[in-house]
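Q: Got a minute? One more chain.
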Amino acid sequence: MSAKTYFNWSSGKDSALTLYYLLQDSNFSVDKLVTTVNSHYNRVSMHGLPVSLLKAQTKAIGIPLEIIELPEQPSMADYESIMSKTVNGLKAQQFTHTAFGDIFLEDLKKYREDNFAKHNIQTVFPLWKRDTKQLINQFLDLGFKTIVVCANSKYFGKDFVGTVIDKAFINKLPEGVDPCGENGEFHTFCFDGPIFKNPIPFTIGEKVYREYKAPKTINNNDNDSICKSDSEKYGVWYCDLIIKS
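A: Always. Here it is, folded:
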C-alpha cells in the first residue's frame, strides 16, 4: 500500500524534479502539495513568486495545494507554532510521510527529521546526496523549463534574474556556485515539464534589489530553505513574474 505523502513544494526546479520521481514511485501517494507563503507580500517564501502563479502552477500539476501563511519576519517560536499546527492538521488527514527536495544541506535535513519525528511523520528525501550537475542535466533532458526568480547578489547581478536555464547556463555559472543553487545562490520558478498538464503562461515584470539582515540560521518548511552564515546583511535580486490571463 502506498504511503499517504504530502510534498513540500517550493515552486522551483528541485521541487519539480523531486515530485517527478515521487509520482513514479509506487511506495508513495502524493496527495497534497504544501507551500509556505509570506503573508505580508503574498509571495512564496524565499522565492518571491506571486501566489497567483503558484496556484496556476499547482493547478497544472493537478494535486491539491495547501498554503501556510507566515508573517513577514516570524520568530522561531512563531514559525514552529504555525508548523506544528499545520502538521497536526495533516496527521488528522491520515498523512504519514512528508517529502523534500533537499540535496546536501546536512543541518537542514537533521532539523526536518528531528521535528517531524516528534509528530511521528516520516521524512523522505528523493534527491539526497545526488550529484547536482547530473540532476540539473536530467531536469533539462526530461523537458522541464525553469526561470531564475531570485539570486544572491554576492554572485549575480540584475541581468541574471529572469534567465531561463539551459545547458549553456550551467556551463557559465561562476566558480563555486552549485549547479542547482543548493547553497541558496539562486532560486527558480518551474513553468513547464512532464508533471504539468500545460505550461504556465507569464511575462517578466520588474527587477528589484533588496537587502536583508541575515539570521544565523533559517529553518523553513520550504523546499529550497538554506542555513545562512552569521553575516550582517545579504542582498537579493528579484525578478517579478506576472501571470497571463
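A: The first helix runs from residue 13 to 23.
Q: Perfect, thanks.
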